[in-house]
Design goal:
With about 130 residues, this protein is of the alpha/beta class. It has helices at about 10-20, 20-25, 40-45, 65-75, 95-100, 115-125, and strands at about 1-5, 30-35, 55, 85-90, 105-110. It is globular. The two termini are about 15 Å apart.
Length: about 130
């Protein structure tokens, strides 16, 4: 089973991705873990308390932005090769360029359809 982590300060967004991926969870294909605070997530992975196969992160969050979080994740030996998808309203070329330099895998723009999230998870994790 693949573990997908979502880091977003919006409970509404987290609820909608959980709903979108409900079938994959019920089929035992993936497990979802959500964090509202990016610093809590970072603390968990820095202390080897959590492993994941795919990370989705928002950009604009009060505690730490998603690009900063991605940069920190890429510094950790266990997680530096893990795929990261940015889930955000930010869609500027400049922001995408910064993300690419950090090593972000891709970009999913809000508002998103359920299908877009399902396809992104399946494509990155190579699930049929």
């Amino acid at each position: 089973m693949k573990r997908v982590v979502f880091v977003d300060d919006s409970k509404t967004v987290l609820a909608s991705v959980e709903l979108a991926l409900e079938n994959l969870v019920n089929e035992g294909v993936i497990e979802i873990i959500c964090f509202i605070n990016p610093k809590e997530f970072l603390h968990e992975i820095q202390n080897n308390n959590l492993d994941f196969d795919l990370l989705f992160t928002d950009v604009n969050m009060p505690q730490m932005n998603g690009l900063e979080l991605s940069k920190e994740v890429k510094k950790i030996e266990n997680t530096k090769r893990k795929p990261i998808l940015v889930l955000t309203t930010e869609n500027s070329d400049e922001m995408k360029k910064v993300g690419k330099e950090i090593g972000v895998t891709g970009w999913v723009v809000k508002p998103f359809s359920e299908q877009k999230i399902i396809m992104a998870v399946k494509r990155v994790l190579k699930i049929r």
